[in-house]
Design goal:
The structure is a homodimer. By secondary structure, the first copy, chain A, is an alpha/beta fold. Chain A contains 10 helices and 17 strands. The longest helix of chain A has 20 residues. At the A-B interface, helix 4 and strand 6 of A face helix 4 and strand 6 of B.
């Protein structure tokens, strides 16, 4: 149990969630374990088939805050300041129907917002127990809070960025011709933990043609001299906040001039997207800033994904930096800027930094060199 | 990618799912990554905010099998025999609406069954894209298949049981007075992997009063001579099938006679529940067999949970061995038998074996001593 968030801050988050819920026409939030519950209660609990959930009424709705929890799980909540937060603990036994229990506590809501990550078994269980209520996603409410990071959250993300930068700084220890992606990945996973993360949440080592698959993980392919290798790695700190940083390396030798030229297009695209960030610019404009350079370089069709994703207690969260997202960026928003170019069967490259929007523009939380490094 | 299931077997599972769906009045199954998808396609993919799903029409419903997958994830499916299984791959880009894509492919279903573990964001996205369809849980269909294990699945669970038994056999290496639960747990986690699991999915070391919290994990509590310690551990093999076994140890000395007597009640309860298993007995009768002995021993109120849970590709799945479950057990069903006694603030004990129902009764897949072992 990592109690890093002050009770007063949690109380403020609960109050703000109730306020935003009311403004959005939601009567009741139902939040199962996951990043939303960690944000509201600082609980690192995880979800399973037994229903655990926080019930949080919107301002003006008659349902006192309650944590519904299986009897056998209740001791695990002893460290969470539920009493100070005015959250009553309601336990249920394996023979009980927890959805009817929620229905009894819910205060007759017309609109119930369920956590975006809530498993369908619970979503439909609640739907049947509250047949008069319309279900919506709590993400519409909670993302409004979570995507605007306070100073302590940015500090955690800055620490996470520095930790993963230290892993990239050690890449010459791990990434050598003749080794398999899997062997390199195992060493990187150890380094991710050694540099301050609680686990290695993801380790992508995409060498040669495997680099052209953006979410390739690891394989038994032996890395050859001249390979381009995409290394996309990250994990959570004890606080729950994540790192996520990609660099592309050349191994053993400079790649061909055509590859170097394409990489330079990518580097310019990442730089242009970063420079486009300022309060008031839209998410889709940042995406377009990267995409415009890649298009002009002739690789538009090879940039297979959005430019970035928000990051915090989840590795992927709002705001998404993608075409069609008109959200205006604000100071305190944190997200990745990670254009990529992927030539199927040949090679791929991606450059990713986490950034935070500032009053004047943006700050990068990853600071390893972005030029093509030859190891 | 671990390709351990033959194409013919996967084809049979898909066919049987379509057949059971039709019988249950479901038109279309929508299965996102998780144990259900691993069962149907042998894919170990995991779920995230981008929609990946298998669409499987029921017998007689006009929707050809399709895998909807984000473009950037598609290469990760290259090893899955989708073409041989007649499953068409449909990719979507970050700017597209994947729910509308599903709606186009769905063939106008009246009843759509979504995977029990599908995140709410996808459940409600599909609800809005298919407003005429009633949503139900795919678990009602797929559990009918998954809880009846075939010989190869039982063989995997037997291997998993033997692997976790080897960890328990080494417990004297790890569990000693003067060590913290966390230190003991770290050693056990390493041993779980060393003995053949791909990860340590859960490690509970509940010493002294912590043993009275059934789902306690690890803490910095130093284990003292005379402590009773609950060790509940397991993880997946490469095939995805799980182990899960609990033993309770006395450390350094025999506990008091009253504790030994209570432990003996627990041992008898576990034995009685095991002996009650035979084809045709109901899940609640097996629960009652354990509970009757614990009640008679005077600890009824201290047995805080159901007697057991099914196990396979999920650690917890159908059938649940719980009061109110009238399901009749059949050969090939696999589940835990794990009564516990928990004295708050004092000590706890639990004995857990995974068992498989046979034609004649049941077979235990865990075989370490059930008497109280003093380390």
């Amino acid at each position: 149990m990592c109690m890093s968030v002050a009770v007063g801050l949690l109380a403020a988050r609960l109050g703000r969630a109730a306020e935003v819920a009311a403004r959005r026409g939601v009567d009741l939030l139902v939040v199962t374990p996951g990043a939303d519950l960690r944000y509201l209660l600082d609980s690192p609990s995880s979800s399973h088939e037994r229903l655990t959930c926080l019930l949080l009424g919107a301002d003006g709705h008659n349902a006192p805050p309650a944590l519904v929890v299986p009897t056998l799980e209740a001791p695990g909540w002893a460290d969470i300041p539920l009493e100070a937060l005015g959250v009553e603990v309601i336990t249920w036994n394996d023979e009980d129907d927890p959805y009817l229990l929620v229905s009894d506590l819910a205060g007759g809501p017309r609109r119930v917002a369920v956590a975006d990550s809530m498993p369908a078994a619970h979503v439909l269980g609640l739907r049947d127990a509250l047949p008069e209520a319309v279900q919506t996603l709590a993400g519409g409410v909670l993302a409004q809070l979570r995507m605007r990071k306070d100073a302590s959250e940015v500090a955690e993300l800055r620490s996470a960025g520095a930790a993963i930068d230290r892993v990239h700084a050690r890449m010459a220890e791990f990434l050598r011709p003749g080794r398999t992606e899997a062997a390199v990945g195992a060493d990187i996973a150890e380094a991710i933990v050694a540099e301050g993360h609680t686990s290695a949440a993801f380790v992508i080592v995409g060498s040669g043609p495997n680099g052209a698959s953006p979410h390739h993980k690891l394989s038994d392919r032996v890395i050859a001299p001249g390979d381009l290798v995409v290394i996309d790695i990250g994990g959570p700190l004890a606080s729950g906040y994540h790192s996520d940083c990609t660099r592309t390396y050349a191994v053993g030798a400079q790649p061909a001039a055509s590859v170097r030229d394409a990489y330079e297009v990518l580097r310019e695209a990442q730089e242009a997207a970063f420079r486009s960030i300022t309060p008031g610019v839209t998410a889709e404009e940042v995406d377009a800033a990267a995409r415009g350079i890649v298009d002009k370089g002739g690789f538009g069709a090879r940039f297979l994904h959005r430019t970035g994703h928000g990051i915090g207690l989840d590795v992927h969260e709002d705001p998404y930096i993608v075409g069609g997202n008109p959200l205006r960026l604000e100071p305190g928003m944190t997200f990745s800027v990670e254009p990529g170019i992927y030539l199927e069967g040949d090679w791929g490259a991606r450059i990713e930094d986490i950034v935070v929007v500032t009053d004047a523009g943006a700050e990068r939380l990853n600071n390893r060199p972005r030029e093509l490094v030859v190891l």
